[in-house]
Amino acid sequence: MKTIYISALIFTFFCTAAFPKDLQAVGDSAALVADKAESIVDEGFDFFASEEPLQMTLYFDIRTFVKTKKDPENLDAILTIALSETDSVSQQIKIKARGEMRRAYCTFPPISLRFKDNKDEEEPILSNGNMKLVTHCNQSSSFENYVLKEYLAYKLYNLVTPYSFRVRLAVVHYRDIDDPKLVYTEYGFLIENDNQLAGRNHVMIVDNQNLVQKHMNEYDMARVAVFNYMIGNTDWSVQQQHNIKVFKSLEVVSGKGIPVAYDFDYSGFVNTRYSAPNEKLTIKYVTDRYYMGQCLSGEEINMVMHEFEQIKDDVLQIITDFAYLSKGTRKQALSYINGFFKQYSTPRALLSELNKTCIKE
User: Fold this and answer.
1) Phi-psi region of 271 (alpha: psi -120 to 50; beta: other; left: phi over 0)
2) Eight-class DSSP state of 237
3) Radius of gyration (Cα) for the chain, nearest Å?
4) 115-139, pLDDT tens digit by residue?
5) Per residue in 72-121, pLDDT tens?
6) Whose CA is closest to 193, among 123, 131, 109, 104?
7) Alpha helix segments (H runs only) across 68-120
8) Angle at Cα 44 formed by Cα 38 and Cα 47, nearest 5°?
9) Are 132 and 112 in contact (CB under 8 A)?
10) Is 247 helix (H, G, I), strand (E, B) or coil?
11) Which of 37, 70, 147, 230 has its CA 20 to 30 A from that of 103?
């Protein structure tokens, strides 16, 4: 895996002036920056090379992890990945509880896996970097379904645009390092990090707080907004950079950013028991759709809806084929997504609905 470390470059370009001017400057000098940037090749396990669930084991102090989740600590852990029924690879890593809301709500919050160089390990799983692990939150069948449905939301988003985080479903075996009886297995999923997404798409991450939707590429912004509308997700904001990352192309000269959405547990598609709409919105339930994007023209909605219609069969097939959910749960998920396609069978009908709540900038 190739990752390009660009934090210093971003600081140089974005910390002093207004966003559109800065972004254009980055576009003009992107090729030079790419040539001079230090690149580090992480030779290790490709987490996203397969669609099969990854069998992995985490050994760590589970009690301390749970006890300190609201004020998380870096804890030592051993990650073991099964390469086959008879072969595996292990690495010493650090883990840390993450996710502001889920650390407060979940008995077992999501985890940040932190890899680092270890001279004692000739073939590490990953030589450096972080990776997110979405966990079960609480031990029950409903929370297991939440994990699986949020994983599906990411997979649907992957169909919409390559500017989306790849995910890998995992069967995670948790083992306590001090208590051999404290052992359990749950579904989770891994999310690629910012550098991995950036490397795949030849983009760089933008760290700037003066962003709004009009600073984004119009069609990339429309895809994100319509996708979030399709899955019933209102838990995002470009301006607050809440559940949105912004990237900038290193290949195309442009004064516009590329928004990438993540964290879909508050969506109507996942429909967790702890989710609720923002009180400022006019909807009562998270399953109610509410459009939070910019107002679109007829030409823009025609183009975006054509793209969504092109992937409709694949979207529905992914849900249909996802055997890790029960038939009843898959039927509900299909019904929810089909509701979007059936209700807005024409771009004109969708445009009329979206323009009721769109951002007029």
Assistant:
1) left
2) B
3) 21
4) 986 656 566 898 889 999 999 999 9
5) 999 999 999 999 989 999 999 999 999 989 999 999 999 999 998 665 65
6) 131
7) 100-105
8) 110
9) yes
10) strand
11) 230
